[in-house]
Design a protein that fits this description.
The protein has 13 helices and 14 strands. By secondary structure, it is of the alpha+beta class.
């Protein structure tokens, strides 16, 4: 008990541990760089609006959200901004020379609240890495893009994924990957080999694409593999940049449709669940798990119920369905589901009979009824009558309308669901 109290005191005194790491992961969703012509107010406010639209699309997981949403004033959501020179300068579609980059950071929590208040779902900042498998055939050669490659196609894909806020992993595509997954598997969108190879990099979705140049245009087919919601589609375009951006938009929209969650609403009761998390062996690990849970978009509040040297029990209030929580936990790389640890039975020590305890041979023999005195029989009869009368009175006093006090056996059980996980790192 003393060690548990000490641990709790240490936890309370170190509330800022890991907060920077969590915030760093979240902040990138709300940062946008917009090339501008100059530093005038007209250019700035136009960039504010363009950047706000991009962030709303990221956090809603819907590229058409701005067609459905009445756009608010962009400046109210800007936390800070700064300018940097654009080197080298470049021209936009209108032929204007863009000289600067306006770096904008938006207030993500306010923007999420705006979406939820308007009835739109929110795709939070905790997003699993999507594994990208892209097979390319340009002319006679066919290859699979890997992490170390320098390629215009790969750069275009990275920019499109960043624009939509989709964290991604490119494979090493070393001997191990090549043995598990071929270009033909990627081109065919075969689920089993793609998902098995992807498990090496992430528990999140896998995006597999094949792009073939036929001399006139790019032909492509795509496979987005997620738990219970796989999608397949084909696209053609003469411009590979437009094709890649369209493919990423379609994939990100599908991910948002699966991972974005609605608010429970003011008139609905928040769902209550409990997580028993193992392998929490330090203050830092405890704080890491607590901050991780607090930053999940589906979680409204986190309350620690129990902390010991190996684990912690948290009670969560959810803004949405508990399946949304379980889906996020499954796809993230923080916790892994495990079985409940059953307490080990403790063997009781053998009971020893004290030496002075009387044995059977020392007990006094029972006195027969004929040997009892008359006074003893009379007293016994009075006791029996008294007991019988009191029992009769108690039975008559208890009616069906009387409330029955709950005993430990009849007390209502706590039906809050408990899920068991283990901290991975």
């Amino acid at each position: 008990m003393k060690s548990v109290c000490t641990l709790l005191l240490l936890l309370l005194s170190s509330q800022l541990i890991f907060s920077n790491a969590i915030a760093g992961r979240a902040t990138s969703l709300y940062n946008v760089d917009i090339p501008v012509v100059d530093e005038s107010s007209n250019s700035r406010y136009g960039a504010f609006k363009k950047g706000m639209n991009e962030v709303f699309i990221r956090i809603s997981g819907d590229s058409f959200v701005m067609d459905k949403l009445k756009p608010p004033a962009a400046s109210r959501y800007v936390k800070q901004f700064s300018y940097e020179p654009l080197d080298p300068p470049k021209k936009n579609a209108a032929g204007e020379l863009l000289m600067h980059v306006l770096k904008i950071q938006y207030n993500g929590s306010l923007m999420m609240k705006y979406l939820l208040d308007k009835g739109f779902p929110v795709w939070g900042e905790h997003r699993s890495d999507a594994v990208i498998w892209l097979a390319v055939r340009d002319g006679q050669s066919e290859y699979v893009l890997k992490e170390s490659d320098q390629s215009l196609l790969k750069t275009t894909m990275d920019k499109a994924l960043l624009r939509r806020g989709v964290p991604a992993r490119w494979p090493l595509y070393d001997y191990k990957d090549q043995k598990a997954l071929t270009a033909a598997d990627i081109r065919g969108g075969f689920r089993d080999p793609i998902t098995r190879a992807s498990e090496r990099y992430s528990r999140g979705p896998a995006l597999a694409g094949s792009m073939i140049w036929n001399g006139k245009q790019w032909q492509s087919n795509w496979s987005l593999l997620m738990d219970g919601d796989d999608q397949y589609w084909n696209m053609v375009d003469t411009d590979y940049e437009q094709l890649v951006n369209k493919a990423v938009d379609r994939a990100a929209n599908a991910m948002g449709n699966v991972y974005a969650v609605h608010d429970a609403g003011k008139d609905q009761h928040l769902i209550r669940v409990r997580l028993d998390v193992q392998a929490i062996t330090s203050v830092a690990k405890y704080r890491k798990v607590e901050n991780y849970l607090l930053n999940l978009s589906v979680v409204a509040s986190v309350n620690p119920l129990r902390v010991d040297a190996q684990s912690a029990m948290f009670e969560l209030l959810l803004r949405s369905d508990e399946q949304d929580l379980l889906k996020l936990l499954h796809n993230d790389a923080e916790l892994i589901e495990t079985e409940a640890i059953k307490p080990q039975p403790v063997k009781s020590p053998p009971v020893e009979i004290p030496a002075e305890a009387p044995g059977p041979e020392t007990l006094e023999p029972e006195i027969s009824g004929s040997e009892k005195t008359a006074s003893e029989k009379t007293a016994a009869g009075k006791d029996v009558a008294a007991n019988t009368g009191s029992e009769k009175q108690a039975a008559e006093a208890l009616t069906p309308e009387d409330p029955v006090t709950a005993t430990p056996d009849t007390a209502p059980q706590d039906l809050t669901p408990v899920y068991y996980y283990r901290l991975i790192h």
